[in-house]
Design brief:
CATH topology of one domain: Tetracycline Repressor, domain 2
Radius of gyration: 20 Å
Largest sheet: none
Order of helices and strands: HHHHHHHHHH
Shape: elongated
């Protein structure tokens, strides 16, 4: 994917990148529903026809935004982990890293709800954009946020059998993803900041304690 840079205008030969920037802005403002190719074209000052030379339609543009949103989510998680103080005890250090990654995940969702929703949207292509049989069978690449959580769990528990490893990562991901959605769209969305933080920290403590061997 092209590198995304700021700005609403584009230089000659960089229209695709400008359209992506505009689409990311749209997602940031209102989630994946706001990402429309014609609106992205309008924002950078070109015709829809020019935009369609770079994207087949809304589905392709939204998939590009989704890839970007997943990347910046993972970046936020890694920044949160980098801020966490280390520990001489490797087990404690691993627990802190796992909790910090989870905290960064939820924090990103709360601070950037539009991009967070875009990170996990399922684009609905127009009929002419439907992929062929070979493309439909191609697996989705692993989401980096999940990879970070899975690797942090492995550092805590060792490297279990592949099925167990994937299940553990999925369980941690489910906890932070479900909490994020409850904070954004569910009954927890009206919590004051301190109570919200308490809920987040309690959930993270449960995720970490679930990795400990009885």
């Amino acid at each position: 994917m092209a590198a995304i840079s700021g700005g609403k205008t584009y230089h000659h030969g960089d229209l695709r990148n400008a359209l992506i920037c505009a689409a990311v802005d749209l997602a940031t403002e209102g989630g994946p529903e706001r990402v429309v190719l014609r609106e992205a074209a309008r924002r950078v000052g070109v015709s829809p026809t020019a935009a369609y030379r770079h994207f087949d339609g809304r589905g392709e543009l939204l998939r590009t935004v989704r890839t970007h949103a997943q990347r910046v989510l993972a970046d936020a998680m890694e920044r949160a982990a980098a801020r966490e103080p280390g520990a001489d005890d490797p087990a404690l250090a691993a627990e802190r890293r796992l909790a910090a990654l989870c905290r960064g995940y939820v924090g990103f969702a709360v601070e950037h709800p539009g991009l967070y929703r875009a990170a996990f949207c399922v684009p609905r292509p127009a009929r002419e954009e439907l992929p062929g049989p070979a493309e439909r069978q191609a697996p989705e690449p692993e989401v980096r946020a999940f990879t970070l959580l899975r690797e942090a769990l492995e550092a805590l528990t060792g490297t279990p059998r592949p099925g167990v490893r994937a299940a553990g990562g999925a369980a941690a991901w489910s906890a932070v993803h479900g909490l994020s959605l409850l904070l954004l769209d569910g009954p927890l969305r009206r919590l004051p900041a301190q109570r919200r933080n308490d809920v987040v920290e309690t959930t993270l403590a449960m995720v970490v304690s679930g990795t400990r061997t009885p």
